[in-house]
Write a structure and sequence with these properties.
about 25% strand; 2 domains; Rossmann fold; 9 helices; alpha/beta; single chain; eight-stranded mixed beta sheet; four-stranded parallel beta sheet
Amino acid sequence: MKKILVVATGGTIASTPHQDGLAPGLTIDQLARYFEHSQDVSVDFHVLMNKDSTNMQPEDWLRLARVIDENQNRYDSFIITHGTDTMAYTASALSYLLNGLNKTIVITGSQVPVSFKRTDAKKNIKDALTFAQKADLPGVFIVFDGKAILGTRAIKLRTKSYDAFESVNFPYIADIADKHVRIHFRMEAERTAVPKHIGICPDVFLLRVFPGLSPAFFEFLQNHVKGLIIESFGNGGLPFENRDLVAGVEKLVRQGIPVIITTQCLEEGQNMELYEVGKRVADAGGITAGDMNTEAIVAKLMWVLAQTSDPAVVKKMIQTPIAHDLDYV
């Protein structure tokens, strides 16, 4: 008999109407009624927190990781019910925090509360149970709208539609329908083994570049962050004329603050060597993130900085594929 632990964290799936709008309110007994399963599966429930995922913090990722780590020998797989707004961040974070754990970890939720007459929650719950029971794939996955997406590759693109999430720069792992799992992509084992480390350093900042951004902003950052992620233009370029942002990157790097460069473009990654505007950033010490998505970069940098502040080691770890987060395209 396969044993599954459902860890509830709140989110829309468990929300009910309140005076100020929808908020998590279902008890675990009420939520458990919707987890219909066959007799050859044992499902236990654990309420870890009951919050809108907008309020989810890195410290909550640690709580989730520890619950799963502490129960890894008692259960075959895990399901986390979670709000959709920060689900992709949590999926990425758990992919690093629980790296190497040979268990299937499924995160699901819904766009409409499970107690509503018209809802996507019941299907997502059924699909999550099916995937957790039958997929037999180690790792962290988001199961939503009949699809399984690798945790480090999921992005929420829609606020209302049932197909809220998409897999970016990586194939969908599987389709789930009528209690059957159809695997589309089986991942090869990664060549580099990275030791598991359950720790987070949240002192990072995410900066989205726009025309007119003042270089003076970097003066503020140098005293307030331990790592910076820049969503640049196109292939990784930053302006160096008139408002010189490249000089700001160089100054932070000289102070030992790692600067990770990604792109505002969702698909196809970046090549900082292609244009002068990118080559200057690379020469200033900017660390390319390849085809990683922003959610994964944020979680990965927090996880790396909890282990080291050595810029060379940070660069090596960021650019080492973990949980298939990097350089597929």
